[in-house]
Amino acid sequence: MILKVTSFQVADSIDVKQFRSGFPAVMHHADTDELFYHISENKYLYVFKHGLVCFLGYTETEIASFLERLHPYCKNYFTQHLSDEFDIETEARAINYGYNKIEIPASGIEEIRLIMLNASQSVALDHYNQQTSLLLEETNYHTQVLELRGKIDMGGVELKKYIGRTLNLKNKIAQHLYIFDSPEETWEDENLNKLDIGLKKTFDLQSRFRTIQEGLQIVKENLELFKDLLQYRNSVWLEWVIIILILVEVINLLIEKFL
Can you tell me the distance from the alpha carbon of 49 to that of 19, in angstroms, rounded to the nearest whole number? Predict the structure, then answer.
């Protein structure tokens, strides 16, 4: 049997507490960050606080209907959703990882949850990678202007907003992506632990996570440079203001003396 997993990044965040109270279904796992439902046989739903939803066994019509139902619980709902699909083939002789596919001997609920979790994390990484790329493009633009003109074309307020966007993205990643953490169930079950390690390698989660961190580090280093240049520019202006004020005072003294 082939089961299809579909993950979406639908918003910046989802109010899982409010959603849970308004969605009566069989709950298998719940905490402050995520809700995992066993809807029916071979049908599961995973909702994450950080704006992700993962479906297994849902039709396209059912997915569209659910996303519409979820909209009121979302903060900054996206009109364009990042998504990814992953197939699970059950009743295999052994675990085998393929491109956008995994073969497993048994489709227990914890195995299903683990696969859906990693598939969702992969979509989240795509989302944050896009945002990091946009920040890098903006950084490259300003460095090119600096190379051509010898100065930056940002004011203090614009630079502060730029720094805020970068810090906000870093904080979101730190809060929402627990790439290196595994569910507690994997600590006590060797088979689940092996499955989790294999899935992380299949989705290349750790390498992609490091790429995002390196991109943000480049942006941070450039921001430090821009901030120093802006402070230097402001200090030069301040020096000129002081010089002009002193000059005006001297002129006033001379006028008073001769008159």
Answer: 10
Q: For residue 102, give the nearest of 218, 91, 228 by alpha carbon.
A: 91
Instruction: Return the residue matching tokens 């953490």.
Output: 181
Alpha carbons 141 and 125: distance in angstroms, whole number? 24
Residues contacting residue 112 through CB under 8 Å, at least 6 positions apart: 3, 44, 56, 88
CB crowding 149-167: b at 16 or more within 10 Å, else e: eeebebeeeebeebbeebe
**Which is nearest to 114 in space by CA: 31, 194, 26?**
194
Nearest to 118 by CA among 34, 47, 202: 202
Q: What's this model's pTM, rounded to 2 decimal places?
A: 0.80
Cβ distance 9 to 82 under 8 Å? yes
pLDDT tens digits for range 56-101: 999 999 999 999 999 999 999 998 888 999 999 988 888 899 888 9
CA distance 230 to 30: 48
